[in-house]
Specification:
CATH superfamily: Response regulator
Low-confidence stretches: 1-14, 155-160
CATH topology: Rossmann fold
CATH architecture: 3-Layer(aba) Sandwich
Mean pLDDT: 83
Oligomer: single chain
């Protein structure tokens, strides 16, 4: 696995492009482990704050890499995950791309806002490592859905497992 910095974001180059906006190094590590646990080989673009994430997206909309799946933490520094989600859904190149919200928030208002803005999945971060690793299965299910099928909006009610 090759790791390099690109547009102020860390990248793991292999196969399927995946974008992760996450400020916690521990959660980035666990996310990488979740991908490995589910056999996902990918180009992982990691931005540690919302400003870096927005810069990456603005560049990617014109001539940069095209992630197949976007994973956003809601509580990012500088620009929050809701603003990034709004940007993705408001006519960007990635308007139909799958978006997973990965957050510690259990607030029903946060969930409802993300649903209204077009998130495909809302997954709460869990303290149990083996449960956290299940996020890899959610990502795996979303890979390849970009532009291939119409997005089906997420329901506002919590779903069992994975802290959803």
């Amino acid at each position: 696995m090759i790791i390099r910095r690109s547009l102020n974001c860390t990248c793991m180059f292999e196969y399927a492009p995946i974008f992760l906006a996450e400020d916690s190094p521990a959660d980035v590590y666990l996310f990488r482990e979740a991908l490995k646990a589910h056999g996902i080989e990918c180009n992982l673009f990691v931005c540690s704050d919302g400003e870096e994430a927005m810069s990456f997206l603005l560049k990617a909309e014109t001539d940069g890499p095209a992630p197949e799946v976007f994973v956003l933490d809601l509580n990012l520094p500088k620009i929050n995950g809701r603003d990034i989600l709004r940007h993705l859904r408001d006519g960007s190149r990635f308007a139909q791309a799958p978006v997973i919200i990965l957050t510690s928030s259990d607030n029903p208002i946060d969930r409802a806002d993300c649903v209204r803005m077009g998130a495909d999945r809302y997954v709460r971060k869990v303290a149990n490592v083996s449960d956290f690793l299940k996020i890899g299965g959610v990502v795996k299910a979303m890979i390849g859905q970009t532009h291939a099928t119409p997005r089906v909006p997420l329901k506002a009610t919590p779903q069992p497992g994975l802290g959803e």
